[in-house]
Amino acid sequence: MAGIKRVGIVAKLRLHAVAAHLAETAAWLEARGIEPVFETETAALGGVGSGRRAAGRDELPRLVDLLLVFGGDGTFLAVADRVAESGRDIPILGVNFGHLGFLTEVAWPEMFASLEAAIAGQAAIDNRLVIKASVQRGGRETARRYALNDVVITRAALSRIVHLSVTVGGQFVASFHADGLIISSPTGSTAYNLSAGGPIVHPTVDALVLTPIAPHMLSNRPVVIPASTEVVVVPVALDAGEEVFLSIDGQSGQSLEPGDEVHVARHDQPVRLVESASHNYFEVLRKKLKWAER
Q1: CA distance 47 to 5
Q2: How far apart are CA 168 and CA 263, in angstroms?
Q3: 186-219 burial code (b ≥16 CB/10 A, e <16)
Q4: Quick check: 2 pLDDT over 60?
Q5: Who contacts 158 (Cβ-Cβ below 8 Å, separation ≥6)?
Q6: CATH number at residue 92
Q7: pLDDT digits (tens, 9 = 90+) for 109-164
Q8: Does 144 lie in the same domain as 243?
Q9: Handedness of CA 199, 204, 210, 214 (dihedral sign)
Q10: Is residue 1 part of a domain?
Q11: CA proximity to 211, closest of 201, 223, 203
């Protein structure tokens, strides 16, 4: 990662606990000849915008060589989506000011050490699979988004069980009668997928997980499939007033209409996470989920 000249800085909206650290981070970077570029609302939060460059979240990944994210996993997911959208191959360092912190795994006391290692090209980088989801209506693509965690197709609050026809690699899998379906990446396997009874998948495994939500048939169990295959989900037998909703990483979504096709596949470019030097994936599982503890 040598050659880092500009570092983007994004904080969770209204995260006042981080405000005091923003100027310190900017000064640390500037002392090393690196330009900090603040996300617009982050600059306002920390009062650090005067004389420093700022940009919107959509534009920021195109301007910098590395991104610092202060907040929780939700903020990280929103930034990862922008990085995937931009097509830039830049690393992201997540600093945890949230609760769970699976993605923002670096704590503030170790942030500068992790940042220094990243700038020097000595930090370990974890390449995480990104999901590309598109909606096709009448043979035309009407929307495309990217997810680091999951794509979820579910019924609206007052709708009945939905019927979802699923094919994988052009082969019919099943017609799921359930509250919905989660298509998860390995990174997202510890998110909604886990709550719905899906398996934990190590982030380096090149796979996707299909997990029905509260299926009508108990035999409809989660299935792990190769990430190289495309998944197509079609809502069928929608009655009048029945709604089906598509959600991308819990960050954005839209209603689906009868005949819509949701195409889900692995994105060509992974998202690159700067790893914490102080703990590994299984330590995070034990610490955050109390996994395998008595």
Answers
A1: 22
A2: 10
A3: bbbbbbbbbebebbebebeeebbbbbbbebeeee
A4: no
A5: none
A6: 3.40.50.10330
A7: 999 999 999 999 999 999 999 999 999 998 899 999 999 999 999 987 666 788 89
A8: yes
A9: positive
A10: no
A11: 223
Q: 141 and 251, same structural domain? A: yes
Residue 81's φ and ψ, nearest 5 degrees, are -60, -45
Domain housing 186: 131-266
Residue 118 and residue 150: Cα distance in Å, rounded? Answer: 27
Buried residues in 121-153 as b, exposed as e (16+ CB within 10 A): eebeebebbbbbbebbeeeeeebebbbbbbbbb
Contact status, residue 84 vs residue 133, Cβ threshold 8 Å? no
60-97 pLDDT tens trace: 999 999 999 999 889 999 999 999 999 999 999 999 88
Which of the residues are catalytic? 73
Half-sphere exposure of 209 (CA within 13 A, CB side): 29
Query: CA-to-CA distance for 149 and 73, rounded, in angstroms?
Result: 10
Query: Which two structure tokens, joined as six digits, stand for 178?
Result: 């359930």
Tokens of 194: 């886990």
pTM (2 d.p.): 0.91
**Do residues 98 and 157 share a domain?**
no
CA of 188: how far to CAs of 69, 102, 210, in Å? 18, 10, 11
**Does 294 reside within a domain?**
no
Evaluate whether 88 touches 115 at the Cβ level (below 8 Å).
no
